[in-house]
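We close this part of the discussion by returning to an individual protein. In the encoding step, the backbone of a single protein was reduced to a row of integers, each denoting a local shape. The sequence in question and its structure tokens are set out directly beneath this paragraph.
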Amino acid sequence: MKTDSPAPLRLLDSLDAFTEHSGRLLAWLNVAMVLLTFAVVIMRYLFDQSSIFLQESVMYLHATLFMLASAYTLKHNDHVRVDILYQRMPGRGKALVDLLGTLLLMLPVVIYIALSSWGYVLDSWAILETSPESSGIPAIFLLKTLIPVMCALLFIQGGAEVLRNGAVLLGWRRKEQSGDVEDRL
């Protein structure tokens, strides 16, 4: 696609594409989680067997999906929000609220979580923390690593949201090959 859009909009496209591809890839964890849960139930109720490893695998997959898909959820504006006034605002008003919310709330909280979790994650890596269960997954340090990774992904998508809402406030438009102006940034 030929474009003469401003550089920030091209960067926005790249950030959005990264988040979109990540989210679509992570969606496959749902399939694995369902299959493992099914296997755990079948083993337990049909064969009277249990597997701590499989049960923890479901937990790891759920945590991975929940933590790493948060940026995808942000991109698609699917986070929980109270929008009593927001839904009645014009596009520029929504962009201003979203921009301020991202800059003053979301990004500072993400930075705080990343910084405050760093020692916790490093300590876990230093001892290669394992499951307290003898037959559990010997990699709790990997599970804890999801915290700063989630923060990095949210920070990237937060940057995309700043660009998107800034572009709306500045009146920037994306031009397609035909010269028509796209409404959605």
The CA atoms of residues 42 and 141 lie 29 Å apart. Residues 7-170 form one domain. The chain has one domain: 7-170.
